[in-house]
Amino acid sequence: MATQKLYAGAKLRELRTRLEHTQKDFAARLGVSLPYLNQMENNNRPVSTTVVLALASEFGLDVTELSAGDGERLVSDMREALADPLFEGDMPPLADLRLAASNAPGLARAFLALHQNYRQVHERLASLDEALGREDSRATPSPWEEVRDFFHYCDNYIDAVDRAAEHFAARHAGPQGIRAAAIEALSQRGLRVMFTDMDAMRMVDPAAGTLQISSRLTEQTQTFQILLQVALRTQDKLLDATLDLARFHTPAARDIAKIGLANYFAGAALMPYTAFQDHARSCRHDLEILAQHFGASIEQVAHRLSTLQRPGAKGLPFFFVRVDQAGTITKRHSATRLQFARFGGACPLWNVHRAFETPSQFLRQLAETPDGVRYISIARDISKSAGRFGAPLRRFAIALGCEVRHASELVYADGLDLSRDSAFEPIGISCRICERKQCHQRAVPPLERNLVVDPNRRDLLPYRVD
Q1: Within 13 Å and on the Cβ side, how many CA atoms surround 319?
Q2: What is the separation of C-alpha 430 from the centre of its chain, rounded to a whole number of angstroms?
Q3: What is the 8-class DSSP label of residue 345?
Q4: Assign residue 458 a region: left if phi > 0, alpha if psi is -120 to 50, beta otherwise?
Q5: Cβ(423)–Cβ(416) under 8 Å?
Q6: For residue 130, what is the DSSP state?
Q7: Mean pLDDT of 313-330
């Protein structure tokens, strides 16, 4: 298999600008000529091995940052946006999209934001939600999607918050020690923790100085909610500083993101980065062993694995997704080349949908995407009871996976035949941009292909993809 060339012009320019170096100075420290550096920064030449070594030795750069998945995410998101019927004609070549993502990532993000705003306006009109004539009917980004994209393009890793949580947990041993320390930290700030039989998971009464936690929750969820409140009480300045850098468009987006950062702190305190990463490697990423050791839920552990993207100390590049029974993606992140659809549901051939049929069991799947990349994926139902009769049952399924080249580091790969091509099921991102011509589960035609309809023949689909 040919080695893929590394083009990282935008990252080279970003590093040089951050160091306040001229091109001449930067080229000298890298040991290359000025024209050669200029060609690399404009992606006319790939980054050579000599330059990669110089970046590591001269600047201490984590060279894995050069091939981070930001460009792949942008390419995937642009392909999905350009598959919208709004854009008539042929899809731009994949090479052009990759050039845009690598040479002009800011422009690519602006295009995605413009398309997202268009969709929101179109959906508002289509649903006739009385937006016409209202003063607040102007197009604004969806706060929820804006926050989702913030975490998406941060690689789901927030360094300052992660390190603050690890520092908090370092002084205490085990989940019970962390839980006791969290309760004590709130007590010192005038907030007494109480466990109450109630429907709400967490409720603060500022006047009474109490934090009520539902006694119906599992112990793991109780601890998580207490730690979330610790973040809001003890890390407020850090959270606000992080939010200031994000520059959200609306107060609602900022409020949602603050809770998201508090959730991030809670997970990082319950499962401190270094200790969690070390234990994950030693047990070959066995979710059940990790959940028991750190006093966390299966979902919390799977989500935490997807956040191990600290520069210089990265864990396995996982993707993580949570879906409901309708197939709607409610959580998503990928540190791999596999990117999820921004709109609509996930591919129906993915094993995450079958997890609802086998509660409390792990399903394993070997899968191959249209670009030829192969993955190993595990899925599990994680239904959540409200703790009383008559309360609605919240049903979700999660999937966690990575490229099959990391299979030796996963306990879930044991016993699978990775050498057999037929063992890998064909999956895609979404039907609109999937290139597979013979998919028996296709819901809509691919918008970038011509269709041939034969009135004298009917196969699995009522048309043939040309």
Answers
A1: 25
A2: 17
A3: B
A4: beta
A5: yes
A6: S
A7: 90
Q: How many residues does the chain have?
A: 466
Span of 122-136, 308-322, 382-396 with lowest mean pLDDT: 122-136
Residue type, 166: E
Mean pLDDT of 415-432: 89
Specify which residues 378 forms β-bridges with: 364, 400
Global pTM value: 0.72
Select from 261, 434, 281, 226 the least CA-distant residue to 346: 434
Q: What is the pLDDT of residues 300-316, one digit of tens each?
A: 999 999 999 898 899 99
From residue 405, alpha-carbon distances to 21, 52, 375, 413, 428 in Å are 38, 23, 8, 11, 19
Taking each helix axis from N to C terminus, what angle separates 49-59 and 23-30, rounded to the nearest 10 degrees? 100
Residues whose CB is less than 8 angstroms from the CB of residue 112 and which lie 6 or more positions away in sequence, other chains included: 74, 77, 78, 81
Give Dmax (Cα) for the chain: 78
Grade residue 126 by pLDDT with cuts at 50, 70 and 90: very low
| 313 or 105, greater pLDDT | 313
Residue 193: its H or E element:
strand 192-196
Residue that is written with structure tokens 């300052």 in the block: 160
**What tokens appear for 98 in the block?**
């990759």
How many beta carbons lie within 10 A of that of residue 343, not counting itself? 15
Q: What single DSSP character describes residue 404?
A: G
C-alpha to C-alpha distance for 50 and 70, rounded to whole angstroms: 23
- ∠ CA(322), CA(119), CA(93), 5° rounding? 85
H-run or E-run covering 324: strand 319-324
CB of 182 closer than 8 Å to CB of 223: yes
What is the CB neighbour count within 10 angstroms for residue 23?
Answer: 15
Please write the tens of the pLDDT for every residue from 156-205. Answer: 899 999 999 999 999 887 889 999 999 999 999 999 999 999 989 999 99
